[in-house]
Every structure is written in C-alpha cells, then in structure tokens.
Amino acid sequence: MSAVGLDHAGLTVSDIERALGFWRDAVGFRENGRGTVEWSHLDRLTGIAGTEIEWVGLELADGTQLELQEYHRPKGDPCPPGAEADPGRGHLGLRVAGLDALVGKLRAAGAELRSPAPVVLDEGSYKGWRAIYALDPDGNSVELMEPPEAEEDRI
After folding, report:
1. Residue 12 backbone class (left: φ over 0; alpha: ψ -120 to 50; beta: rest)
2. How far apart are CA 109 and CA 134, in angstroms?
3. Whether the Cβ atoms of residue 7 and residue 121 lie closer than 8 Å to each other
4. Residues whose CB falls within 8 Å of the CB of residue 145, separated by 6 or more in sequence, listed in order
5. Mind listing the pLDDT tens digit for each residue in 48-71?
6. Residue 58: phi, psi to the nearest 5?
7. CA trace torsion 42, 44, 48, 53 (10° rounding)
8. Does residue 78 have a cis bond before it (omega within 30 degrees)?
9. CA distance to 12, 59, 68, 83, per residue, from 71 (Å)
C-alpha cells in the first residue's frame, strides 16, 4: 500500500483570527468548521503532553482542505524568519483565477510578497503560467499560480 491522495494540509499559527484574515479573507478559503479540543489521542499523535488546540477548517471550491491550528497549551516558539531554500521549509501551491486582484487584496492585508509582481514562468511544465509567493502572518509560504487564459477556462 502507498499514499493515495492528499487529505488536508495543516499549518500551526500563532493567532487564529489573524491567520483567517489572510487565508479566508484575502486568499479565499471558506470556513467549514472550528473548535477547541483537548483530546488525549492528539497528545499521543503529536508527542506533546497536555495539548489544547484551537482549530479552523478551511476549504476551496474544489474541495481542497486546509487546517489552521493554534496551540493554546503548550505555547510553541515561533520559527525564525527564513527563505524557501532553508531545509524544513515548505509551501502550498494554489491554482488561482484573477491573480492580479488577489495580489492587490494581499497587499491591502499587509502580506509579505516575495517578488514585486507576479512572475511569468518561462520554462518547464508550468510554462506560461504566472505565479507569486506570499507569506501568511506566521511566515508560512503559499505559491499562488494562475494558468494561461486557455487553461484557466478549463478550471
């Protein structure tokens, strides 16, 4: 047996409401659940004793799931700022429509962008696409990718 699909991506954040300003309000995920849990199986699963975790489930129109989690207990230490090239870093790649308008919303929300404008991808399997990297309030990286017009019509 092997992995058969991606169920969800999860991000630990320092402040749920601040993170929702980015992921829900600017990027466009829809909130589909939330709560605070203190479940012993999560202590065993994470290897962290005595957890209290606030979570929010988010979803895109195509069913893509993102889970934000804020640890109220224990409080974690923020990761230092870094670059995409640092081992242990990662990013989410999201296909978007209306990239320029989305970049405007991100700028208005105060998001850090890794380039001044979307970049046209000149080579490879995404040739012709436009993309930009943005950081959420906790430094999590997302690559926002817009296909060429002909492909966008098929989304």
Report:
1. beta
2. 11
3. no
4. 93, 94, 95, 96, 99, 126, 129, 130, 131
5. 999 999 999 999 999 999 999 999
6. -130, 155
7. 10
8. no
9. 8, 21, 10, 24
Distance CA 82, CA 85 (A): 8
Domains of the chain with CATH codes? 9-73 (3.10.180.10), 91-152 (3.30.720.110)
Edge-to-edge, what's the strand order for the sheet holding 65-73?
9-12, 65-73, 52-59, 30-37
Do the strands 91-95 and 65-73 form a parallel or antiparallel pair, or are they unpaired? unpaired
What pTM was computed for the model?
Answer: 0.89
Provide the 3-class DSSP secondary structure of residue 111: coil
Rounded distance between C-alpha atoms, residue 43 and residue 5, angstroms: 25
Q: Taken in order 150, 92, 62, 21, is the CA torsion positive or negative?
A: negative
pLDDT (tens digit per residue) in 76-110: 999 988 889 999 899 999 999 999 999 999 999 99
Per DSSP, the residues of 49-97 read TT-EEEEEEEE-TT--EEEEEEEEESPPPPPPP--TTSTT--EEEEE-S
